[in-house]
Each structure stands twice: as C-alpha cells, then as structure tokens.
Amino acid sequence: MTASERLGLQWLGGNSSLPKILVLYTGGTIASGSIYGALDDTQYGQLSITGEQIIARNPNLLNNTQLAVSNWTTEDSSTGTNDALVMNMTRFANDALCSEDSDIDGAIYTHGTNSLEETGFLLDLLVNCGKPIVAVGAMRPYTHISFDGDANFFDGVMLAASPQARNRGAMVAFNARILPMFWTTKLHSTNPDAFWPVASGDLGLFLNSLPVFYNTPSTPIQKREFSVAAVSNHSSYPALPKVDILYAAREFDGKLVLDAQANGADGVIIAGTGNGGIPSGQDEIDEALSKGLQIVVGTRSPTGPSSPSRVPTYAKSGFLHVIQSRIMLQLAIASGYNMNQTIELFEGDMRAAIGQPWSPET
After folding, report:
1. pLDDT tens-digit series, residues 267-323
2. pLDDT level of residue 76 (50, 70, 90 thresholds)
C-alpha cells in the first residue's frame, strides 16, 4: 500500500506518469472573494472557493502534474490562529512525504499571507526528507481585476514538481520569485511583491512559469532540524508550548515578561532595539529566568543580526526574525532544551564565526 492509498488521497489528472504534488489547502486570500467589486483588495472574504476550484481555473496544471487536495480549513479556526491545527497538518505532511511508503514527489500549501511564513518555517524545520514544500498565496482576492493567486499557485506546483527543487528546504513561490522559507518574511501589507528574505537573497525566479535557480542547493547555517515525534511527546501536544512576543521601546516595562509567564508562557521573544538591546526591565527579566522562563531577544529592525552578549543569560536570535525565532523556541522547548541549550541553538554558529565561544562552565 502506498502513502496515497493509506491516507485516502484522490489524485486529479489522467496521466499517472506525471509528478504527484500534494496540495495542503488552508484557504487564505487566494481562496477569498469580495462582494464589493473587482477593485476591492482590502474588504474581501465574503466569498470563497475550494482547492479543487482553484485547480479547475487553470487546466495547464493537470497537463504537468497530478494533484491531490488535503483540506485543512475549519469553521471555527484557521492555520493563522491555531498552533494545534498547523502541527496536525505538519504531521500529515511529514507522513505523506517522508514515510517509507511515500509515492508523493512534493507539496504546496495555500495560506493566508499574514502568517504564511510562520507555518512555512515550522514545516521547514520539521519535514526534512529533501522533498520540496512550497508556500503559495495571494495578495488580492480572486474577484480582483488583477488577481495574483492563479499565477502563484501554478508556479508553486511547477516548483514542487521540479527535481531541481529537492534538498533546498521549504520555499515560497510568490510574484514570479523563488524565496527561501527559512529567511522569508512579509515586508509589505498589501503589495503583490510582499515577501522578502531578511538574510541572503532569492533562490531563483520563474521564466515561462518554470523554476530557474541561481545556485546549487545549500542549507542556512543557523537552520536546525527537529523531530516531529520528539516534539509530539511534549505536554503541549497537539499544539506547541506557549511563546509570546514582546516589543521593546524606550521605558520598556519588564513586568510584561513576568505577566507573560504568569499567563502560562513557557518562553518569550523580545523584539529588541538595534542589534538586540533591551532598554530597561532587566531585574524582572532576571526574575523570570530564575523561574524557568526561556527568553530569546531579536531585533525590531527588519534586517541585521541580534548579536551575542559576552556572557549571556538569555539567547540572542542572530539573523532570525522575531517571528521565526518564536517558532524555533517553541520547537526547542518541546524538544526538551533548557535555557543554556537554547543559547547554543541560537548563538553557537555566530559565536564560532566571531571568535566568542561560550559554555555554561566558563
């Protein structure tokens, strides 16, 4: 029995020799329409289409691939608001792509762009068998005069089906660009060219809707792979440990860190000033650390590192954006890391590069 049969996947397309691409369908703007006309791109959401209807909009898809839709939409929550739902989808994707009986070549997932990078970063760290996973979405609803979702969807499918896409980690197909999921974040709230890597550059682009890469596959130095099984053994299952994000500014109130801990947070990410500064509140931070809270400090700047301290008491995020740092810390806590291990996780490679080694014994 193949993974497709075991998971009950129904393949669209009549040519069984074509690549099999799994469509993890979570909705998003790409599946949303507006009752306010073809110019509206801010007040949409009253109309919707299914994954199968998106596929039917472009018959060229099934001339190049076989597609099976796995629906992850719910009436009472979404992958933009629910860690448990995202983790269950990640477990499903890992099973479908990485099990010994897998007959699937790659996957795409549709997603609302507000949290596309969060789901993608999680998939990137947990699904690690070399098969491509590609994020697709849209900045304009399907009723808009210049809907971008059809092109992004087609490009994403062709990328996931490409043998050259293997062993590159998760990727984003957006606005005819191929982006590395590990570094990518949403930097514009409405423009179709919304996503950009905050460290490194694009992986490639699409010509004639086919992927063209600039370089051979490589892995970000700061990337770590986590085990789905190990993370799923944590008490937060089926979700992830609670980690909150705080934003630092002048007269930052350290009591916010204690409040987050009192409200059940296992960890806190602080978007610090500059390269990871915290203007005030150190006494409360020290108190929270002594009570077992794990803390990672990034930068509120859109690019650049949060660099290590000479003698750390909490972790600095390096080049990771605060959004990605939250996911990394959730996985670290779920995997049993303590604060010193988390410091090494986030800082180890940068410390080696700048000649500032550290260990808890020094």
Report:
1. 999 999 999 999 999 999 999 999 999 999 999 999 999 999 999 999 999 999 999
2. low
pTM > 0.90: yes
Question: Is residue 307, in this structure, part of any structural domain at all?
Answer: yes
The sign of the dihedral angle between the CA atoms of 172, 53, 1, 63 is negative
Greater model confidence, 78 or 94: 94
Please check whether residues 12 and 160 belong to one and the same domain.
yes
Is residue 227 assigned to a domain? Answer: no
| Token code pair at residue 359 | 């260990």
CATH number assigned to the domain comprising residue 198? 3.40.50.1170
CA–CA gap between residue 56 and residue 113 (Å, rounded): 22
Q: What is the DSSP letter of 355?
A: T
- The verdict on residue 249 lying in a domain is yes
Catalytic annotation, pick one of 26, 29, 65, 113: 29
Please check whether residue 68 lies inside any domain of the structure: yes
CATH for 251? 3.40.50.40
Q: Closest Cα partner for 272 from 252, 242, 257?
A: 252
Strands (E), the chain: 20-25, 32-33, 47-48, 66-71, 106-110, 133-136, 171-174, 177-180, 184-186, 195-197, 204-207, 210-213, 243-247, 267-272, 294-299, 315-316
Interacting residues of 143 by C-beta distance below 8 A, sequence separation 6+: 33, 34, 37, 38, 40, 44, 47
Residue 90 falls in the annotated catalytic set: no
The domain of 256 spans 241-354
Helix, strand, coil percent content, the chain, rounded in steps of 5: 30, 20, 50
Per the structure, the count of domains in the chain is 2
Residue 279 to residues 132, 272, 312, Cα–Cα distance (Å) = 42, 8, 16
Same domain, yes or no: 51 and 198:
yes
Same structural domain, 179 and 277: no
**Same domain? 247 vs 204:** no
Nearest to 346 by CA among 240, 199, 224: 224
